[in-house]
Write a structure and sequence with these properties.
- The chain has about 425 residues and is an all-alpha fold.
- It has a single domain (about 10-420), classed as Sodium:dicarboxylate symporter (Proton glutamate symport protein).
- The protein has helices at about 10-15, 20-45, 50-85, 90-120, 125-130, 140-150, 155-160, 165-180, 185-210, 210-230, 235-260, 265-280, 285-300, 305-315, 320-335, 345-360, 365-375, 385-420.
- It starts with 9 loop residues before the first helix and ends in an 11-residue tail after the last helix.
Length: about 425
């Protein structure tokens, strides 16, 4: 199928807005700013009643995004695979998605390793680390992780929110639809799936319309958590390593990837800002997926066939922020346990962190619990994770924003590859 790409650039679309549309955008921007300021003020007030209300608002929006995220992942992947399956471009999209994902994730782990060795955070005093009792964590092998991905019924992954299992089921259904003979029943089923997807995107528009209220709740909750957090000197150094690694990945590494592909990082960042902001406050890349897809398609001009194929996959496997956290935290806990951190150990953990990040779920604190499980399975003491927990709220927000920004980077690069390569004799861009 041939698609004539008429999608205007973000700047052109903005200049073409009517006065009424510009006015509406200004009102929305003011609403965002007002809710952000109110969130900071309410958090600083530290009123028990207000805290309860802000926590309620944040929980409502977290649930709304969780509610919409799993079906969006499933329907988007099924419909895209069904339409792309027999076309060679689907293979191109998938190969480039995996290539860019592994490249950015490995670099994120390498940046974390370099900073860890350069800054060398000090150990936590043993008596303090010994008081951090977070309970006994059961040892879980990688074979158990793989087994948990394989569902024993079709509904359980959707009910439990197991994103990897949902992805597996959706990919299988999408591929099956792609290779099925085209007949009335197949087309009816695919049209039903596309109709459900359109309904979900309408729900997304409604959620985005009231999103500033959710940002107010998330902001107030964050400010309150920061006021109650206790940061020890050595943990503060560890914290600075993790945050610095994420910021370098966000502001230097990922823009460099975009520049190498001939894309303007500032334009892409401006278009993806709503998604990055939601990721920062919600701490869930899977929950942010609806906003990520809408921002990529509407603001950055990413072809919907690319966005709806690449982004659901990236939400599950493209975890740049998590890779850095896993590597730095694992080395830090091993160092505190008296394990020698040699050059070979660091190299090994770059690959372990990359593979672990690919298997992480895009949910709040998913990376934290994955790290605990990973270290426990390797018999590394994890009591220190209790000391890290008070500062993890901030780390989780930053690394989730990095994850979504990386997803957007991959989607835009894949879209650029297809736009450059798949052009017919009339100059039309061929996608699927």
């Amino acid at each position: 199928m041939t698609i004539n790409r008429q999608t205007p650039s973000f700047d052109a679309a903005r200049s073409a807005l009517s006065p009424e549309q510009k006015k509406r955008r200004l009102i929305n921007a003011a609403f965002y700013a007002l809710c952000l300021v109110l969130g900071v003020v309410f958090g600083l007030m530290n009123n028990p009643g207000l805290n309860e209300l802000m926590n309620f608002i944040a929980s409502v929006f977290t649930r709304l995004f969780s509610f919409i995220a799993v079906p969006i992942i499933a329907l988007a992947l099924i419909s895209t695979l069904a339409k792309l399956g027999k076309d060679s471009s689907s293979g191109k999209i998938f190969k480039r998605t995996i290539t860019y994902t592994l490249a950015t994730t490995i670099v994120a782990a390498m940046v974390g390793a370099i900073l860890f060795k350069a800054i060398a955070p000090a150990n936590v005093p043993a008596e303090i680390a010994g008081t951090a009792n977070i309970g006994t964590i059961a040892s879980t092998s990688y074979l158990d992780h793989i087994l948990n991905v394989i569902p024993n019924n079709i509904l359980q992954p959707f009910v439990s929110g197991n994103v990897l299992s949902v992805l597996l089921i959706s990919a299988a259904i999408g591929i099956a639809l792609a290779i099925m003979p085209k007949n009335e029943r197949r087309d009816s089923l695919l049209n039903t799936i596309l109709g459900l997807q359109d309904v979900l995107f309408m729900l997304i528009k409604w959620i985005i319309a009231i999103l500033p209220i959710g940002i107010m709740g998330f902001t107030a909750k964050l400010v309150t958590e920061l006021e109650h957090g206790v940061v020890l000197g050595s943990v503060a150094t560890y914290f600075s390593v993790v945050v610095s690694a994420n910021l370098i990945q966000m502001f230097i590494i990922l823009p460099a990837f975009l520049l190498l592909r001939g894309l303007n990082p500032l334009k892409v960042a401006r278009g993806m800002l709503p998604a990055v902001a939601v990721a920062f406050f919600s701490k869930s890349s899977a929950g942010t997926l609806p906003v990520t897809m809408a921002s990529a398609e509407n603001n950055c001009g990413v072809n919907p066939k690319v966005a709806r194929f690449v982004l659901p996959i990236c939400t599950t496997i493209n975890m740049n922020g998590c890779a850095g956290f896993i590597l730095i935290t694992s080395l830090y806990l091993m160092q505190n346990a008296g394990i020698e951190i040699s050059f070979g150990t660091v190299i090994a953990w770059i690959f372990i962190a990359t593979i672990s990040a690919v298997g992480n779920a895009g949910v709040p604190m998913g990376c934290y619990f994955l790290t605990i499980s990973l270290l426990s399975s390797m018999n590394v003491p994890v009591l220190l994770m209790g000391i890290i927990l008070p500062v993890y709220a901030v780390i989780d927000m930053i690394e989730t924003a990095v994850n979504v920004w990386s997803d957007a980077t991959v989607a835009n690069m894949v879209n650029k590859d297809l736009k450059d390569e798949l052009v017919d004799e009339e100059g039309n861009h061929v996608i699927a």
